[in-house]
């Protein structure tokens, strides 16, 4: 193992440390009990916290006789660690979603089924604030009668009148390759964002909400689809204005970053 970063265990190593078989680890992953990381070549990698979680899963299964759903709920009630990810700004979204689910008296399985995602995906999102596309994030916000912007922590007590270039606050990066930066803080009549999209980054599905929105491409190229049948290929300097109640999806068609100004009013996204 490298001394230059956190320890990562392969499947066989993690299984040995947890006292179970490698096939059991794969089964627990399919049941949403643990979500290991991946190496650049796609191989599973388990952190020290993952191994500790595996040991707790084994204990709940053997000593308490709990089924997978009950084990997930029991683990959720423990102090979260998630390999140190649940610290700082990136953890806020996941904690908010978990708090909203608890307030609604729902289990992971219930919400995941209602939204149309797997319980393991929802569990990962609540623990790490990562792992879903914008479409799923919007569906969850709508489910809990809130907005993506509020979930992402836009409400701030201190509202600067001027935000200098490069000093934008950034949303938790729920979707790899999608960075959303705040161009205006506080409770406003508009959501004003700067989107930075890596090559291939996309909404991963169509969504809609109340209001109207405006986008202006600063660099790169964006494909936006309205109502599944209207395609817009937007390049640098192009703008588009549309009603937010129309289903919309998007993706970066450029082989480099695409950067755009995106405004929603009222702040319903």
From TrEMBL:
HTH merR-type domain boundaries? 8-77
Sorted UniProt keywords: DNA-binding
What PROSITE patterns does UniProt report for this protein, alphabetically? HTH_CROC1, HTH_MERR_1, HTH_MERR_2
CDD domains the UniProt entry points to? cupin_XRE_C (cd02209), HTH_MerR-like (cd00592), HTH_XRE (cd00093)
The name this protein goes by in its record? DNA-binding transcriptional MerR regulator
Origin organism is Rhizobium aethiopicum
- A Pfam match is HTH_31
Report which superkingdom the organism of origin falls in: Bacteria
> Which GO terms fall under molecular function for this chain's record?
DNA binding; DNA-binding transcription factor activity
- All residue ranges annotated as the HTH cro/C1-type domain in the record: 97-151
One GO cellular-component annotation of the UniProt record comes to: cytosol
């Amino acid at each position: 193992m490298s001394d230059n970063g956190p320890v990562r265990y392969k499947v066989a190593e993690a299984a040995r440390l947890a006292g179970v078989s490698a096939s059991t680890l794969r089964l627990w992953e399919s049941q949403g009990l643990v979500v290991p990381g991946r190496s650049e070549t796609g191989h599973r990698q388990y952190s020290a916290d993952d191994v500790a979680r595996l040991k707790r899963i084994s204990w709940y299964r053997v000593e308490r006789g709990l089924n997978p759903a009950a084990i997930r709920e029991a683990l959720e009630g423990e102090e979260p660690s998630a390999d140190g990810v649940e610290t700082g700004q990136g953890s806020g979204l996941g904690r908010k979603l978990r708090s909203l689910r608890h307030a609604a008296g729902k289990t992971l399985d219930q919400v995941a089924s209602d939204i149309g995602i797997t319980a393991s995906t929802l569990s990962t999102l609540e623990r790490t604030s990562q792992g879903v596309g914008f479409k799923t994030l919007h569906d969850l916000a709508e489910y809990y009668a809130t907005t993506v912007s509020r979930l992402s922590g836009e409400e701030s007590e201190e509202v600067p009148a001027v935000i200098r270039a490069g000093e934008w606050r950034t949303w938790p990066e729920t979707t790899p390759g999608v960075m959303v930066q705040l161009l205006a803080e506080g409770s406003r009549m508009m959501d004003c964002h700067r989107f930075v999209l890596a090559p291939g980054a996309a909404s991963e599905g169509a969504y809609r909400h109340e209001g109207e929105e405006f986008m202006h491409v600063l660099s790169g190229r964006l494909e936006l689809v309205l109502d599944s049948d209207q395609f817009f290929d937007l390049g640098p300097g192009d703008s588009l204005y549309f009603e937010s109640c129309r289903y919309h999806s998007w993706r970066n068609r450029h082989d480099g970053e695409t950067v755009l100004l995106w405004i929603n009013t009222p702040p319903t996204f």
